[in-house]
C-alpha cells in the first residue's frame, strides 16, 4: 500500500453524501405525494370548529323547550350541526339545526319535548361524515 498516494488522492466523500441526500429527498417527496394521493391529507385538515353555545330552557308543563344559541367563535355550516337530547318519553332524539346559512354568533335553534334532566348536546359532523364531535353540552333542569 502506498501511503503517499493515499494522502495525495483528490477524490473525497462528497459524491457518497450527495447520493444519500438525493435518495432521502426522493423518499420524503414520495411520502408527501402519497399522503395526498391516498386522501390522507384531506382528513388531517378537518378539525372541529371552536364555538361556544348557550342553552335556555322553558318549562312547557310536561317537558322543556330548549333553545340552543351560538354565542361566539367559528361559524359552522348548518348541515354540519345537529342537536341530540332525550325526549320526555326517554327516547334519544337527534334533530338538525334549525335555520339557514352558516351558523354564526346569535343564531339559535329551538327544540321541543326535551325531557327533564336530559343531556342536550350540539354535535358537529365533518362534511365527509368521517368524524363527529360534541362541541356544546348542557343538562336540562329537573
Question: In words, what does this structure look like?
Answer:
The chain has 142 residues and is α+β, with helices and mostly antiparallel strands. It folds into two domains: 12-44; 51-139, Sandwich (Immunoglobulin-like), CATH 2.60.40. Helix content is 25%, strand content 37%. The protein contains three helices and seven strands, in the order H-H-H-E-E-E-E-E-E-E. The protein has helices spanning 3-8, 14-37, 40-45, and strands at 51-59, 64-73, 81-86, 92-96, 108-114, 119-125, 132-139. It has a four-stranded antiparallel beta sheet with strand order 4-3-6-7, with no helix packed on it. The longest helix has 24 residues, at 14-37. The protein starts with a helix and ends with a strand. The model has no long low-confidence stretch (mean pLDDT 86).
Rg, alpha carbons: 29 Å
How many beta-strand segments? 7
Low-confidence stretches: none
User: Fraction of residues in helices?
Assistant: 25-40%
Helix-and-strand structural type: alpha+beta
Q: Within the largest sheet, what's the order of strands?
A: 4-3-6-7
Oligomer: single chain
Measured by DSSP, the beta-strand proportion falls in: 35-45%
Main sheet specs: 4 strands, antiparallel
Average residue-wise pLDDT: 86
CATH architecture type of the largest domain: Sandwich
Tally of individual domains: 2
- The succession of helices and strands, N to C, reads HHHEEEEEEE
CATH class term of the largest domain? Mainly Beta
The CATH topology of the largest domain turns out to be: Immunoglobulin-like
Number of helices: 3
Q: What's the end-to-end separation, in Å? A: 94 Å
Question: What general outline do the C-alpha atoms trace?
Answer: rod-shaped
Amino acid at each position: 500500500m502506498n501511503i503517499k498516494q493515499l494522502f495525495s488522492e483528490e477524490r473525497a466523500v462528497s459524491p457518497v453524501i450527495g447520493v444519500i441526500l438525493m435518495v432521502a429527498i426522493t423518499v420524503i417527496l414520495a411520502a408527501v405525494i402519497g399522503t395526498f394521493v391516498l386522501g390522507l391529507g384531506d382528513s388531517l385538515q378537518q378539525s372541529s370548529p371552536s364555538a361556544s353555545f348557550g342553552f335556555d330552557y322553558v318549562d312547557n308543563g310536561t317537558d322543556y323547550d330548549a333553545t340552543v344559541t351560538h354565542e361566539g367563535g367559528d361559524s359552522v355550516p348548518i348541515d354540519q350541526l345537529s342537536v341530540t337530547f332525550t325526549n320526555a318519553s326517554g327516547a334519544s332524539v337527534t334533530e338538525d339545526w334549525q335555520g339557514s346559512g352558516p351558523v354564526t354568533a346569535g343564531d339559535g335553534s329551538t327544540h321541543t319535548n326535551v325531557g327533564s334532566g336530559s343531556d342536550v348536546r350540539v354535535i358537529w359532523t365533518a362534511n365527509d361524515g368521517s368524524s363527529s364531535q360534541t362541541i356544546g353540552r348542557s343538562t336540562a333542569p329537573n
